[in-house]
Amino acid sequence: MNRTSQTLALAASSLLLLLCGCGQKDDAAQTRADNGSATAGAANAAGGAGGLSGAAQAQAFYAEHPEFFHFKTVADIPADLRWEDGAGLPEVGSPNAKKGGTLNTWMQDFPRTLRTVGPDSNGSFRRWILDDVTLGYAHRHPNVTELREDGFYYLPALADRWALDRENRTVYIHLNPAARWNDGQPITTDDALFSFFFYRSPHIRAPWYNNFYGTKYAGITRFDAHTFALHFHELRPDIYSLALGLSPTPTHFYAEFGEDFTERYQWRVAPTTGPYTIARDSDIAKGRSITLTRVKDWWARDQKHFRYRFNADRIRISVIRDSAKAFEAFRKGDLDTYGLGLAEDWYDKLPDTAPEVAKGYIQKIKFYNDTPRPTYGLWMNQATPLLANRDIRLGVQHATNWQLVIDKFSRGDWSRMQTTADGYGDFTHPTLRARGYDIAAALAHFAAAGFTRRGPDGILVNDQGQRLSIQLTTGYEHFKDMLTILQEEAIKAGLDLRIEILDGTAAWKKAQEKKHEILFAAFNVGAEMFPRYWETYHSVNAYDAPFTADGQPNPARKPKPQTNNLLSIARPEIDAMIEAYDRSDDLGEMRRLAHRLEEALYDDASFSPGFVTPFIRSGAWRWLRIPEDGNVKIANSFEGSHLFWIEPELKKETLDARKSGKTFPPAIRVFEQYRKP
Amino acid sequence: MALNPLTLRKLRRFRSIRSGYWSFLALMALIALTLGGELLVNNRPLVIRYEGQWFFPTYGANLPGTTFGYDYGYETDYRALRARFAAEREHGSGSGATRREARAARADNWLLMPPVPFNPNENAAYEGVFKPAPPSWLGGPPGHWLGTDTTGRDIFARLFYGFRTTILFALAFTALTYLIGIAVGCLMGYYGGVFDLIVQRAIEIWSNIPFLYIVIILFSVIPATFSIPMRIAMLLLIMVLFSWTSMTYYMRTATYREKARDYVAAAVVLGASPARVIFYHILPNTISTLVTFMPFTIASAITAVTALDFLGFGLPPPSPSIGELLKQGTQSLTTAPWIVGSAFGALVSILVLVTFIGEAVREAFDPKKFTTYQ
């Protein structure tokens, strides 16, 4: 699941890469795609009335693929399975939470579809109807993030128990009989099977899903209406994530499934397993806003882990195209919360002395999370003449002043990224430290590469008169100023970085064609169990024919386009470790391999780790309450975990106070329990 | 060179329109100043006297810190050097005679910085971080007359060099569009017939291509392997390519009109070649209409390049530009109003100067000389 999600990132633009959290959580959520409002009754999978209904098509598909879809009885379930139900895990959320109220928030663009799969569906709105709110079979516990033998700790969602049969690489799942779609239909095993028809269908026009559902799973077995099993080709430590992270697809809703799926279901609201839906047509104001309503009698509302979450009755998401305007709307009180991630927003636009903050109307919240970090840094392409030389790469490492960027640009808020995979707990190398800015060291390395004297402009030149000038490409316009700081500092070390700011898609395309020299970019990563190396560092993703028969670098090799090996790194020893890592089913061994891989990559010096943002910062009006511990450990946004609640009396009190000038104690809250030293 | 008495009269008339004339002088003075800008706005000193040697670093190669006894090999931080010289003058070191000698030698060390001692690209931290600093007269750090931008670069220096790039760009743009526009327009008017018909249709099609989008698309795919001046030249070329058409309409009609006059027929009868007819007879008689357009073309070129910069498709970073400052300014309107204030003020002043000149030129070249200029 993890790997395929990165393939998704690869296929899509760098925008997607960064803006949409697409990683494991996302996949799991994405795989839960569904659609439209409960219309057109008819056929369920078992009934299969009418040749054209979705259910009937699914039945035909099952019959065509007997190697994948198996039908057995409860008696075939092994008796010695060790069922788990996630009992005993600490509950998520605050018991003080109250239901009610409306959350006002914003988005930059109106979604182009309400589908959650197919063209245009992977936009920033999707999290409101899919990623953050729908239920899978079981969810990774967002606070208990330690690893055990079978992977993460899971808390029950649609499933009430599950079991792993290691020998047969199979996960058994038992659905909670109480589970219902929001239209009242029960959620059954047939909906689970239907997913494997739906997501493998060409009609959804989503090749990533087709591939994911077609290759990651070896089969599915139905035992009864509430019990099924998923089979796998191999036993990886994240097998539970692949199985439990899925979610069912409402068979009854896709009765009209067919070739015109993407148009037919474009604006239909699908039944959901989660607490929020778009209840009325009037809640969709095209181009202006969308309002979500909490599902009445949601089946899981009293379940442990869900009873204190999803508290707002309504969530109104308005379209505001300009972030500066959204900020003003927040300050006025039209929006309840606003992300203050930028240093400028946190310190200058809404300083602690701002009247709304000083008078206690707006809370400023800084929450340190602990989750894998996007890989912001310089990706040096070894397939280019200068950077093929390791001394030049080492020189560039020492000539980039990330510390100055962190101290002066982010005002000390960011921290230095140290490896290629920070934030993975034990999997992150414990002692490796990224190279610091050191002019003398940079000059020594450049000199070793033949660049010994400075030209009239202070840039090093070699004996052939070639200047040490390297192009630095990026698609992140908002980091332009930061790059000019690196550029000015690099000149001191005799290195000329020519900055190229491209449109996000253009920059990503250039990098995918391996035409960049240095790329400043980041791969976004979900809250996954362990980092991936194959996509980014294996030689098959670097060149068409990386090595000659005797294992030497092939002089005629050509960079391979459309892969994530942006470094064009091809080293047999790294390949061997990656292959062992990807085959391994032993977490301990994988951890050791990951550390050795990091050391090899450090030695290779083609990735200059940049910075990590170890926190979420937001502003929230006083009536928006949050639990004692702030948020969940793997949170990636203030509202995404839906732990907040709204106090209508406080809202009235605060608005009155604003008129009368009454003040409250200022609330600047910092949650540091997950902060890494 | 003897000028045509008619032209002289027009020039006298232009001089008599005070606002236009003074604007013209001011703009010329500004351009002249910016051409020697490195002597006025720069972080390199004009003159350094160090241990008996003279240095003039403004236009030369960069002088590493080691030249002045520092231990680094990159370009000297001259503002620090100035502070060091000043400190050395105050407290000499050593003792007795040597101390006096040392002091005497050191007292000879001095340097002269330009009036604005900042480079448009250098980041200066304010209160320890890179953030906008208010102008010095509003309590900001000394020396930054208009404050600094979001990464601590001096706004005056950026406006100064931004103006230079913009105005040179606009002048080159005007010259090129006129060159192409006049040539094509004259040919169409002179030859007429099928040639005119075909070229006219081609121009109609060409001018219907939405200019801004094409510039954005083309400019985003230009490989950045080119140097910054090269990229600016390409931007210029693209803009010219889509802007020369409007000039052809005026030239074409003017040429048609002049061609029908007797003096052209006389010239043809006398055996003048088409080139001679066009350049010696027709062009001088049509040029006065064109001249009046020129300032407005310049104004629109300035606006266009500023708009492109504002949208992020203009001059490549870190080139200083007014549009880029305007964009920064609108993003930090509440926290750093001086950014947008300076950029807006500068843009308006330039456009006002150019427009005054344009109005005056139009008035001076107006054949109906008794109309009043309002």
From TrEMBL, chain A:
Q: What's one GO-annotated cellular component?
A: outer membrane-bounded periplasmic space
Looking up SUPFAM superfamilies in the UniProt record yields: Periplasmic binding protein-like II
Q: Which residues form the Solute-binding protein family domain?
A: 156-526
Question: Which GO terms fall under molecular function for this chain's record?
Answer: peptide transmembrane transporter activity
Q: Which residues cross the membrane?
A: none
Classification via InterPro entries: SBP_5, SBP_5_dom
What keywords appear on the UniProt entry?
A: Signal
List the signal peptide residues: 1-25
Might you name a Gene Ontology BP term for this protein? microcin transport
Recorded hits in PROSITE patterns, A to Z, give:
PROKAR_LIPOPROTEIN
Note the Pfam families from the entry.
SBP_bac_5
Q: What is this protein called?
A: ABC transporter substrate-binding protein
Organism classification, top ranks?
Bacteria, Pseudomonadati, Verrucomicrobiota, Opitutia, Opitutales
UniProtKB/TrEMBL annotation, chain B:
Q: Which UniProt keywords apply?
A: Membrane, Transmembrane, Transmembrane helix, Transport
The topology of this chain with respect to the membrane is: Multi-pass membrane protein
One GO cellular-component annotation of the UniProt record comes to: plasma membrane
Q: Enumerate the CDD domains for this protein.
A: TM_PBP2
Q: What is its main location?
A: membrane
Which InterPro entries does this one have? MetI-like (IPR000515), MetI-like_sf (IPR035906)
Q: May I ask which residue range the UniProt record assigns to the signal sequence?
A: none
Domain (ABC transmembrane type-1): give its ranges. 163-359
Tell me where the transmembrane regions lie.
20-41, 167-193, 205-226, 233-251, 263-283, 290-315, 335-358
Task: Tell me the superkingdom of the source.
Answer: Bacteria
Q: Where in the cell is it found?
A: Cell membrane
According to its UniProt entry, one GO biological process term is:
microcin transport
Member of which family?
A: Belongs to the binding-protein-dependent transport system permease family.
Q: What is this protein identified as? A: Peptide ABC transporter permease
- Please give the organism: Cephaloticoccus primus
